[in-house]
Structure of A to I editase domain-containing protein:
Amino acid sequence: MPPVSADAIADCVLTAFQALPAKYKPRSLPDGRKEWTILAGIVLSREKPTPALKCISLATGMKCLPRSKLAEAKGNVLHDWHAEILALRGFNRWLVDECAEMARLGRKGRHEWLRWRHTRSRSDGTGGERSGRHEDELQRALDGVQHTDEHEPEHESTTGREEDTMDDALEGSQPFALHPEVKIHLYISSAPCGDASMELTMSSQEDSTPWATAPPTDILSGRGNFDLLGVVRRKPSRPDAPVTWSKSCSDKLALKQCTSLLSGVVSAGESMGLMWPGDCYLSTLVLPEDEIVPEAVERCFGHGPTGRLRTLTGKRWQGGYTFTPFTVLGTDKVFAYAKPMTPPSATGVQQTANGSNISALSTPTRTEVLINGVLQGRKQNDLKGASSVSRRRMWEVVRALQETLATTAGTIAPTITPTNTTKNPEPAGQHTSDGALKETYKSVQLSSAFAHRRAVKEDVWSTALQRWNRNEGDDEWRL
Ligand SMILES: [Zn+2]
């Protein structure tokens, strides 16, 4: 069977969106004009045992949270609901929901897309071989779909002592993975903001003189200095809008080629984690054919001579992380609510309605309508307004599932090991007098469970994606 086509991936997302009720879609105004939005969706495909293609998460959205609001967000408000970023959060939430279902069924349970991992120490004499990723993939292809007891070589360590230590750390962590033959695809109804679309941005300006709004010594704003290419940018916004420190979707997707599509709380190691990141890299990015500028795509995501990720070619990190570039393919399929291409008429009357302010999120297990990063009808400071994919809800559900898994396995409840005891003096896993966890979101992020993922990001930020200002300020809160 040939690889799944770009049109089939786009169709899968467009059809899933079409099937949603009207409240998830941009409005049609009384005068007949239609609001527009951007749609993105994650599609999983597999060829064995029978070919399957499924839209796992779709989202619409075009905005992000100003930096000034971060401190009030307390994990409840999304920072970034550009469609592709929200679709990725939905994908992570679906994975957690499915892991919970697998935990309920137990190790004998089977899932169409996910599997239990078998982890064992090399000292048992059955898993001591080392192999590269390609050999590993070959073995998996030969294995077909029977992977429940495979051993996954994960580490590049060169000393036996280090391997032993790593295997010990692996026991009980990241019990789930995708089936290795599953491919992950992302469709977006327009080119991602930032570096991959700078040429499109330039050509759409009446005056193509770059807006000199930020000196090149700092992270660039979305469209400022748009003659500078291949650089990390913040999300674009109107020059008079409050500043955001969310990175552009181009930059975030470029980084995912190193960290996988799994979020930190889903892929953390030790007793914190759920899923192994090694099989969770994007295979294909599908964009409208007329939104693809080949040199921009190659520069932004590529590792060839002009690619900004060229220094990462062949790179592997501890924890199952490898530099895994995706392929960008074009489609002629059209999203019914895309921004109309017709310019304002000669009379100056705007023919098209504004961009929609509602954001839809849909997975096979849940649907939400969001406005300003929280559930429609809720205020940003209302705890009940937190989306199921917010930082708070994700940490909550992963933690609860870990406790279930630990109980089932007859081990102790999960705890974390802070790597920096000065910054994290509180004992892990303890509660305050009012029942809240003593751990803050920040202390968990700085814990050793996140060390491998953090090392990947820091490596990439210091080489291929420099000037990546971190969007900090929403992490000093507890569950
Ligand atoms: Zn974007």
Residues 344 and 350 are 5 Å apart (CA to CA). Residues 119-171, 211-216, 411-428 have pLDDT under 50 and may be disordered.
